[in-house]
């Protein structure tokens, strides 16, 4: 761990959860005076109780402004919005506000590979971790994907590499964070309730490039104009990827091959995860920049079937391929999933009604979906949207289990059965993971 002077600095940890808990312990070990604050009462929060018993000052039940007195730095939970009254006042007082990713970047002896995007970042991060595994880079996968970054950064050594999935919430709270290789996959309109506008959301994503130099690399989606504009404004060495363009200095597809700087890497036909081609191209760019051999890349890409619940290939039954994309909790993600297939698709969709419409799915109902099987609170809203699109092959069922059985009965050899709900899961399930697991179990029963 790099020596960074936090001795006697007064730090406020705002929001405990996993990141706040890890940051509090780390900063106290570095000599900081740490106060931990959470909106939940201490007595109801096991992590708060644990910190209190370890000697931390813990304030629960809200975010009183007097906590700011004498504070040098705020490390906030990524999910707490900046319009929170305490944070607004902190900005007026010019108190720096960061997320634990900033602390991790300060102390880590290992270089960072950082991945972000509106869609596909978990799959890409996981795939990069697999491509780098067993090499001299000794990857540690962390960030929004599960393990708190500052927790692993504290013990990371120079001969390791931190492969980190980062959200817009995490990136907005960075100041000097400096990845050696950054990846920006795409930018769609998302999290407007947090960021306030698409522009603010996009600017948060673009912070992944902010501190890179010509000795660093920016891997970016050349098919996304907004992503390209951010990358091209950076100082990093640019490595574009594209599914449509022949890129002399990047990664693309040519004559049936995935190509890196005009070098054939792997045949597209050999990829086990053809439905996530953009994520694959980005991961290949990182692997080649990191010195991974073509043999290793070929081995991993012919055996990687995706991340569970994220356009995950589950299996094949009587010539029908089943894909679990339960993580698709909005229509943007479902459109992305449908774009991944040329085969006829039996789409399983529906769930919690958040009051939004599905008109943006109309072109996909017209061109991509062979039959819609819908369930949950939004079932009839999705059916009405399909009717507007001229898709009359619609079946309403009670739940995901019945949807799988119905899909099998209605499908033919060569069809794709895709669970991509375009809705949150909370009307019938505790989590999208539970919904996806039920889909998988139902498929295996076939």
TrEMBL record:
Residues 115-287 form the Mur ligase central domain. ATP binds at residues 117-123. It catalyses: UDP-N-acetyl-alpha-D-muramoyl-L-alanine + D-glutamate + ATP = UDP-N-acetyl-alpha-D-muramoyl-L-alanyl-D-glutamate + ADP + phosphate + H(+). GO terms for cellular component: cytoplasm. Pathway: Cell wall biogenesis; peptidoglycan biosynthesis. GO terms for biological process: cell division; cell wall organization; peptidoglycan biosynthetic process; regulation of cell shape. One of its GO terms (molecular function) is ATP binding. It holds the Pfam family Mur_ligase_C. Its EC number is 6.3.2.9. Residues 1-24 form the signal peptide. It is found in: Cytoplasm. Keywords: ATP-binding, Cell cycle, Cell division, Cell shape, Cell wall biogenesis/degradation, Cytoplasm, Ligase, Nucleotide-binding, Peptidoglycan synthesis, Signal. It comes from the Bacteria. SUPFAM superfamilies: MurCD N-terminal domain, MurD-like peptide ligases, catalytic domain, MurD-like peptide ligases, peptide-binding domain. Belongs to the MurCDEF family. PANTHER family: UDP-N-ACETYLMURAMOYLALANINE--D-GLUTAMATE LIGASE. Cell wall formation. Catalyzes the addition of glutamate to the nucleotide precursor UDP-N-acetylmuramoyl-L-alanine (UMA). This is UDP-N-acetylmuramoylalanine--D-glutamate ligase. The gene is murD.
């Amino acid at each position: 761990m790099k020596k960074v002077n936090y001795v006697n600095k007064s730090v406020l940890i705002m929001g405990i959860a996993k990141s706040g808990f890890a940051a509090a312990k780390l900063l106290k070990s570095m000599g900081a005076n740490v106060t931990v604050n959470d909106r939940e009462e201490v007595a109801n929060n096991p992590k708060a109780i644990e910190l209190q018993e370890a000697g931390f000052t813990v304030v629960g039940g809200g975010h009183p402004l007097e906590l700011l007195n004498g504070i040098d730095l705020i490390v906030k939970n990524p999910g707490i919005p900046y319009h929170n009254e305490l944070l607004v006042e902190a900005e007026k007082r010019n108190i720096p506000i960061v997320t634990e990713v900033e602390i991790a970047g300060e102390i880590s002896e290992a270089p960072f590979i950082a991945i972000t995007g509106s869609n596909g970042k978990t799959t890409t991060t996981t795939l990069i971790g697999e491509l780098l595994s067993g090499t001299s880079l000794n990857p540690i996968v962390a960030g929004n994907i599960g393990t708190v970054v500052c927790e692993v950064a504290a013990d990371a050594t120079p001969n390791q590499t931190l492969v980190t999935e980062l959200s817009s919430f995490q990136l907005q709270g960075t100041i000097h964070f400096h990845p050696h290789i950054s990846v920006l996959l795409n930018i769609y309109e998302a999290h407007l309730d947090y960021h306030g506008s698409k522009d603010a959301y996009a600017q948060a994503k673009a912070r992944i490039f902010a501190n890179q130099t010509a000795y660093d690399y920016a891997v970016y989606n050349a098919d996304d104009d907004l992503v390209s504009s951010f990358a091209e404004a950076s100082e990093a060495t640019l490595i574009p990827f594209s599914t449509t363009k022949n890129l002399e200095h990047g990664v693309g597809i040519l004559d049936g091959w995935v190509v890196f700087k005009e070098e054939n890497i792997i045949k597209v036909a050999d990829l086990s995860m053809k439905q996530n081609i953009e994520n694959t191209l980005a991961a290949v760019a990182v692997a080649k920049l990191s010195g991974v051999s073509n043999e290793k890349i070929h081995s991993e890409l012919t055996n990687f079937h995706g991340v569970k619940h994220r356009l995950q290939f589950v299996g094949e039954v009587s010539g029908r391929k089943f894909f679990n994309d339960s993580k698709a909790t909005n229509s943007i993600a479902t459109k992305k999933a449908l774009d991944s297939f040329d085969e006829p698709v039996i789409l399983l969709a529906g769930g919690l009604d958040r009051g939004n419409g599905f008109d943006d799915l109309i072109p996909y109902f017209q061109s991509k979906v062979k039959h819609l099987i819908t369930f949950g609170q939004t079932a009839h809203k999705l059916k009405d949207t399909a009717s507007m699109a001229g898709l009359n092959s619609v079946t309403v069922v009670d739940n995901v289990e019945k949807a799988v059985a119905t899909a099998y009965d209605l499908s033919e050899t060569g069809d794709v059965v895709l669970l991509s709900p375009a809705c949150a899961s909370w009307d019938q399930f505790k989590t999208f993971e539970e919904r996806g697991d039920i889909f998988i179990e139902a498929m295996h029963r076939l």
